[in-house]
Amino acid sequence: MSQLSYKAAQLHIESVALPELAERFGTPLYVYSKSQILANWEKFRAFWPSQHKLCYAVKANSNLAILQLLAKQGAWFDIVSAGELKRVLAAGGKAGHVVFSGVAKSEAEIRFAIEQGIGCFNVESAAELERIEQVARALKTRAPVSLRVNPDVDAKTHPYISTGLKANKFGIAMDDAMAVFRRAHTLNHIELLGADCHIGSQIMTDAPFLDAAQRMFSLLERLRDEAIELSHLDLGGGFGVDYQGEQTLDVQSYLEGVLELARDYPQLTLMLEPGRAIVGDAGILVSKVEYVKQSDDKQFVLVDAGMNDLMRPSLYQAWHDILPVHERPGVADAIVDVVGPVCETGCFLGHARHLNVQADDLIAVKHAGAYGFTMASNYNTRVRPAEVLVEDDQVWLIRERETFDDLIRGERLIAEE
Length: 417
Ligand SMILES: Cc1ncc(COP(=O)(O)O)c(C=O)c1O
Ligand SMILES: N[C@@H](CCCC[NH3+])C(=O)O
Hints:
The structure is a single chain. With 417 residues, the protein is of the alpha/beta class. The protein has 2 domains: 4-32 and 280-408, Lyase, Ornithine Decarboxylase, Chain A, domain 1 (Beta Barrel), CATH 2.40.37; 102-272, Alanine racemase (TIM Barrel). 29% of the residues lie in helices and 25% in strands. The chain has 12 helices and 21 strands. The strands form 3 sheets. Strands 4, 14, 15, 16, 17, 18, 19, 20 and 21 form a 9-stranded mixed β-sheet that branches. The chain has an 8-stranded parallel beta barrel with strand order 5-6-7-8-9-11-12-13. The protein has a 3-stranded antiparallel β-sheet with strand order 1-2-3. Helix 5 packs across helix 6 (126-138) and helix 8 (207-225) packs parallel to helix 9. The radius of gyration is 23 Å and the shape is globular. It starts with a strand and ends in a 9-residue tail after the last helix. Pyridoxal-5'-phosphate (PLP) binds at residues 57, 60, 78, 101, 163, 198, 201, 236-239, 273-277, 370. Pyridoxal-5'-phosphate is lined by residues 57, 60, 78, 101, 163, 198, 201, 236-239, 273-277, 370. This is Diaminopimelate decarboxylase.
């Protein structure tokens, strides 16, 4: 993140020193850079003509202030639950600018989305299409629909976040797609608008994306042959970020590749659903070192953030860079395991890291803006961290730290006999 730098031996985000934030808001603490989010957004927008849409994937970071910021930039939104739709609305977004993905939408979610005037359902199965038809009929309306096709492309990413292979649960198999499109075309309460796909997340080269896009364009051709004309094609998200200083995806070349494939469809609106690429490198997780412990052959740095706060290392063996907040020039690094307080051996932030820290120091875990807070839990009855947004020297508290009372709200003791 270009907004992260050392000044006077302390790590700053934009112009704000991290120890100041830790003092004010406590740790663990999620901190996001407003300028970095806007710069990431602009990077996509710059190469994407304005008739095409960018639908920010809310699941990456759904804090209301961030949705509000993106809504102001003209973002559309990709959601996967009624809860995410409520977030978009609460942040000032329009239901008409929302696409609704997800493999197991409930009847209540479908009804709510139609009542709100959702932009489009990204339908993931023939059965879901029938359910949407029924709900729309009961509401005496037509539901806007795109069919999510599974293009059977290997995204070459972690198996848990690959979604575009036949073996994955997502979308309608390419072999069945034509039949489901024909069916959608005939249903009275379905307004067939588009086709979509999403092949996975944290994808680092444009080859799998362009492969999937090509397959989608040949599907559009077959549909055209049957006089089924679509008004949009949504190619999903999945653009990787640079966790380890790898070569990142060249967004410009990918977007240009897609525009080239679309040249025979001047009327077609194209959509993308980036999540991680907009917020991933714009956030850090700040944590305090509680203890340093030397065992036989290892040094453990025990910090106050755990797998419940940032689940990615435990779930995907994901690598996040960890920086000391206080610089100690001239002091050699040790090789340490940075581990959290949760009672699981899998609760760690990083293994075998070169770090020089001592008790009460702060550390910053980089690239924690996407799938950080949104995947946090209350495991071990731990409250989820506060979130702050920073721009230059301005700081906004955008979510308070939870309290113990928040955690037990709704729980009931049973009446004693
Ligand atoms: C349908 C859909 N769209 C968009 C995204 C956003 O993905 P990413 O954050 O990798 O861009 C996801 C998550 O993988 C998704 O499932
Ligand atoms: N949660 C994943 C991304 C999954 C995207 C959802 N389809 C991650 O942290 O990398």
